Amino acid sequence: MIYDLCVIGSGPAGQNAAISAAKENLKVLVIEKSYIGGVCQNTGTIPSKTLRDTAFFMSDFKGRTKHGISSSSTTNIDLEKVKSRLISIVNNGQEFIHRNLEKNNIEIAKGTAEFIDKNTIVITDKEDRKETIEAKNILIATGTSPYHPDNITFDNKYIFDSNSILSLNFNAKRMIIVGAGVIGCEYACIFAKLGIKVTLIEERDRLLPFLDEEISNSLEFSMRDSGIIIKMGEKIIDAEITEKNVVKATFESNKTIVSDVLLYTVGRYGNIGKLKLENINLKTNDRGHIKVNECMQTEIEGIYAVGDIIGTPSLASTSAMQGRIAASKMFKDSYKPMDLNKITYGIYTIPEISMVGETEASLSNKKIPYEVGIGHFRETGRGQIIGDQHGILKLLFHRENLTLLGVHAIGDLVTEIIHIGQAILKHEGTIDYFIDSVFNYPTLSEVYKIAAQNGLNRLNNI
């Protein structure tokens, strides 16, 4: 049998490509070497955000006096129930994805994929049984894996990467997290709120430098305020497990830190090891990423790549869209290119961060005249109710025509309310929308109106 499309990988990118093709009544096969749903569903986004939900609830519960609840109320965590909830949510997601693929008459093969030529794949299952299939088009959606430096031994008992950290014994009291990227910052917030003393190590001199500087600084203040120790400009050179079963980390500065566990989150590399891309002469960069054009085509005819394997932005949301774009190009020869400047970014630290559009730095570099409007969550009724005294939303808009250029926010639920700004940005609207619209009361969405009014006041020197 010759398939119209063979998809290697079942994460958000692979799922969406497969389903889009199947809806055109095409014959589709998905190959998955591990669990359905990929890293996103099984060891990454979904389980980590589930744990974050628990941590956020606990952090709010510890501040329960604002709700009139006695401080003597218990805050003990039932570790087995926490783990059970993680497993249940992961399993439910797997079942949903599996049903969705089957409902669309998509075949699923379990095993590793290896290219013979650009139309032929050999699938090897766990029992080393092999099956050869042919496909008119092949889409690579194998994702990435954590980088393991040679000087660190990962045993998944004391030293972890981001794929294995959720197997941690939650009774650990101290944790070193190496790498203050998105994953490192998210886990630092989660484990700190669960009562673990976290030390966050970063080689650079600023947290998440791609963020608006004001938002980045606000996050750093919040993390330090929650007890996280942040050490900038430090590079780890060794990590060893001592006779006392603790981790001793050594840095280039000759400093050492002792901890119960260490989480290493610096870098991820493309999962290309067993694909034998050399058989189709498909090259990757030094991080295992595959180069594609705007419709996800590689340099080899009939071979597409989507998701984390092609590099930034490496988001589940954009990966899903990339899968749909690739399928549309394959079978309709049409597609809508993705405008990366108008996609939302969500970072699930505590508090959350979200952004869309330009930053002040990018606007300055482009010499675009802009003004800033800032709204504080404490200025809204909903912000007062939930006790978010530090959340802010920042609007960037054109000084001359008031066109919205960017939205940046930090605080409770900002990954939800960011889409209001995204919609206006996508349709090239102005901040007049926020001034003229009536928002539900009390909601955090009202902060858009406050920020817009603040921006107009600044523009008019009021």
Please characterize this protein's 3D structure:
This protein has 462 residues and is an alpha/beta fold. It has three domains: 2-146 and 269-340, FAD/NAD(P)-binding domain (3-Layer(bba) Sandwich), CATH 3.50.50.60; 159-266, FAD/NAD(P)-binding domain (3-Layer(bba) Sandwich); 351-459, 2-Layer Sandwich (Enolase-like, domain 1). It is built from twelve helices and 22 strands. It has helices at 12-22, 38-42, 45-62, 79-103, 182-193, 213-225, 316-332, 360-365, 381-386, 414-426, 432-436, 447-459; strands at 2-8, 28-32, 107-110, 112-117, 120-124, 130-140, 144-146, 159-161, 174-178, 197-202, 229-232, 236-241, 247-251, 256-259, 261-264, 268-270, 303-305, 345-347, 353-357, 370-376, 392-398, 404-410. A hairpin with a 2-residue loop joins β4 (112-117) and β5. α1 packs parallel to α7 (316-332) and α3 (45-62) crosses α5 (182-193). The mean pLDDT is 94.
Quick rundown:
The chain has 12 helices and 22 strands. It is α/β, with parallel strands linked by helices and 462 residues long.
Cα shape: globular
Instruction: Return the CATH architecture of the largest domain.
Output: 3-Layer(bba) Sandwich
Largest sheet: 7 strands, mixed
Instruction: Decide which structural class fits the backbone.
Output: alpha/beta
Write down how many β-strands occur, each being a DSSP E stretch of 2 or more residues: 22
Which oligomerization state do the chains in this entry correspond to?
single chain
Q: Helix segment count?
A: 12
CATH homologous superfamily title of the largest domain: FAD/NAD(P)-binding domain
Please tell me how large the radius of gyration is.
24 Å
**Average pLDDT taken over every residue:** 94
